[in-house]
Amino acid sequence: MTTQCLKMEGHIHGRKIILVDTPGWWKSDQLCDSPERLKVELLKSTTFCPPGPHVFLLVIEVDIAFTEKHRKAAESHMQLIGDDIWNHTLVVFTKLESLTDKTIQQYVEHEGENLNKLIQKCGNRYVGFGSDLDTEGSHVKELFGQIEKLVAENSGRYFNVDATKLTDLEMKLKNVEEKATAREHKVLKKRRKLEEIKDAELRLVLLGGYQSGKSKVAHSFLNIKYQSDQMTTQCVKMEGHIHGRKIILVDTPGWWKSDQLCDSPERLKVELIKSTNFCPPGPHVFLLVIEVDIAFTEKHRKAAESHMQLIGDDIWNHTIVVFTKLESLTDKTIHQYVEHEGENLNKLIQKCGNRYVGFGSDLDTEGSHVKELFGQIEKLVAENSGRYFYVDATKLTDLEMKLKNVEEKATAREHKVLEKRRKLEEIKDAVSGEVKNTGLLVNKHQLKTALEREWGRREVVDRFRIQYKQKLLDDYVSGKEINAALFVNKHQLKDALEREWNRQEAVNSSRMQKQRDDYTETSSCGDEEGIKMSLSRVERWLRHQSSDYGSVSSYEEIYKPEEDSD
């Protein structure tokens, strides 16, 4: 089968013949339906016999009906070479044995309009050629005669190749060769890479919602004993081997299935980003685990997308969806489940490149699920040419800063709590007599004295406040007004109270002295004993009047028990 132009040479009747065979087009396909390779070969055919061909031989077999599609296919492909091609074309009919008793002229007359239109474009030049029937070489002789006749009609002029088309062709061929070379190098590089990664370790990260079955998948995949009461609260790194290949697998805490990223705690976000650090320089594949025993809603899709997107935009090119809890499907296949579950699940799977697999450790008695998942992982790694997920340096830096701040705050809080506990222990020990040297209290006796002094001071101040409030009330009732707002601080208040006390004391003393003088002058009949009793009553009255006033500097003395006046 001719797939590219082929040049042949020979002699007929002493004349040198150069003949170029070309690849054929599909008989019912127009030029726009033909591959680019065929178009290039058709244009290139004219360069095999420079400066240009004298004749084009358009070969048509007679054993099938020549339809409009056939005519348009021939015209469009011939026209590609050049508009002048019809002046140099001779139609050659083949497979003449199918005509039986018809001549080639009768065939042309009876075949119909489409064949006649094409022959007319070729100047009504045609000839039959059947090598199996040409025992005497008459067909070759007739064809050679038709060729010489056409060359003579064109005065020996050959077909002029369009220079622009040839230039475009050369550029096209050059680009094709360069691209082909680049593709070859790329393929070879990819093959070498695949050979390199064939036995290299595989790094995987498990992601998914809370109680989706991630941990069970991890343990089953690596054939590690699984305890159902375990709950993943932080990233866990596991290692194992499958078919002799080392596997590093990182299990992560799950998110609430209907909560988007903004609703998740900061601790979970930190663990998700940190998961990529557990398998440096980065994971090859992320396994997104989804259980099939609950409906997958829009909330579930948005929750998965937002938490996955946190790790990085390129994560979808490295993700395989793993469906768990397959026993709930009963007689459905995993593909039927995906088709029937609805738009939200299909959107998510499309983001993951339509990569998904079912994994049921309880149903996988022969290890087929592990084998299928491992095959999908290897396939994805090969599609990515062994390229692992690139961890965003900015996110990692921000995470490190965040973790550092959290640790510093936690350390400071711990120190604060320990210091507080230490002080409480010291006070407890001081009260019980086992005090250590704090630099302030040496023993329990000093502590007791200080506490008693403080208690006495507060008690005196409280009693003074109560008594002073009563004094203000009494003054208000008696018509006196004291503007407490004028006293700026306790020292001014103290001075004012002392001055008021001294004034009242002076007034009362003066009043008492005047009464005594008046009583002495006017009393002429009282005996000495009566006078003493009267003076005693006055003094008691004065003491009673002045007992509500006292010096603030000596307010502790006010509350001492009064000595008996008698």
UniProtKB/TrEMBL annotation:
Q: Which InterPro entries match?
A: G_AIG1 (IPR006703), GIMA/IAN/Toc (IPR045058), P-loop_NTPase (IPR027417)
Q: Which GO terms describe its molecular function?
A: GTP binding
Quote the PROSITE patterns the UniProt record gives: G_AIG1 (PS51720)
Q: Where are the transmembrane segments?
A: none
Q: What are the protein's UniProt keywords?
A: GTP-binding, Nucleotide-binding
Keyword Nucleotide-binding appears in the UniProt entry: yes
Q: Pfam families, from UniProt?
A: AIG1
Q: Which Gene3D superfamilies match?
A: P-loop containing nucleotide triphosphate hydrolases (3.40.50.300)
Q: Which family does it belong to?
A: Belongs to the TRAFAC class TrmE-Era-EngA-EngB-Septin-like GTPase superfamily. AIG1/Toc34/Toc159-like paraseptin GTPase family. IAN subfamily.
Annotated PANTHER family: GTPASE IMAP FAMILY MEMBER 4-LIKE-RELATED (PTHR10903:SF107), GTPASE, IMAP FAMILY MEMBER-RELATED (PTHR10903)
Entry protein name: GTPase IMAP family member 8-like protein
State the organism of origin. Answer: Labeo rohita (Indian major carp)
